[in-house]
Amino acid sequence: MDFLKPTADCPDAVPSSAETGGTNYLAPGGLSDSQLLLEPGDRSHWCVVAYWEEKTRVGRLYCVQEPSLDIFYDLPQGNGFCLGQLNSDNKSQLVQKVRSKIGCGIQLTREVDGVWVYNRSSYPIFIKSATLDNPDSRTLLVHKVFPGFSIKAFDYEKAYSLQRPNDHEFMQQPWTGFTVQISFVKGWGQCYTRQFISSCPCWLEVIFNSR
């Protein structure tokens, strides 16, 4: 259970669960999670992870200090962030079905060239990151990662050089360029029925600290 406890330096200002108004995820005081966590000089963690079920965040932000983190649903699947231990009031059959498919989940690994995501589950995951696409593109694409495959989801050098993209979803919240969104099993965007990630049953928001 010690692995599931938030670290001492993880921010306490954000409630354990918050209803979002569409895709504008705001914390108390009108600040986004990104603004709360990316304060200059705070380098105790290299990223934080938020778990969402549709428009509701479940549990507290999980601060990551180790070079890699396993995010899974059922114990024991590694030392890391166990989503199955979080208290969720969502009774949706679709959410419960997707939860049961998360299994071994994913692994986030910080390497010299950026942050890699490895799909350890038996189902595809879907990733949206500003550093995966051409910065001049009109919208950011959602990338499908099959089981057993990995992708460099975040590149620090590219993130520093990015301008705010012409993407409707990102324009609804403060843009930092240091956020990656990951959905389990279900995709979203222009190629899918779900246009926004807040319509996906189970998904993650990973906010990176600047180096």
UniProtKB/TrEMBL annotation:
Got a GO cellular component term for this one?
A: heteromeric SMAD protein complex
Q: Name one Pfam family in it.
A: MH2
Organism superkingdom? Eukaryota
Q: Where is this region: Disordered?
A: 1-21
Q: Where is the MH2 domain?
A: 46-211
Q: Which GO terms describe its biological process?
A: anatomical structure morphogenesis; cell differentiation; regulation of transcription by RNA polymerase II; SMAD protein signal transduction
Annotated keywords? Transcription, Transcription regulation
Q: Which residues form a coiled coil?
A: none
The record's SUPFAM superfamilies line, in alphabetical order, gives: SMAD/FHA domain (SSF49879)
Matches recorded under InterPro entries: Dwarfin, SMAD-like_dom_sf, SMAD_dom_Dwarfin-type, SMAD_FHA_dom_sf
Instruction: Write the protein's name.
Output: MH2 domain-containing protein
Could you tell me which species this protein originates from?
Mandrillus leucophaeus
Alphabetically, the GO molecular function entries are: I-SMAD binding; transcription regulator inhibitor activity
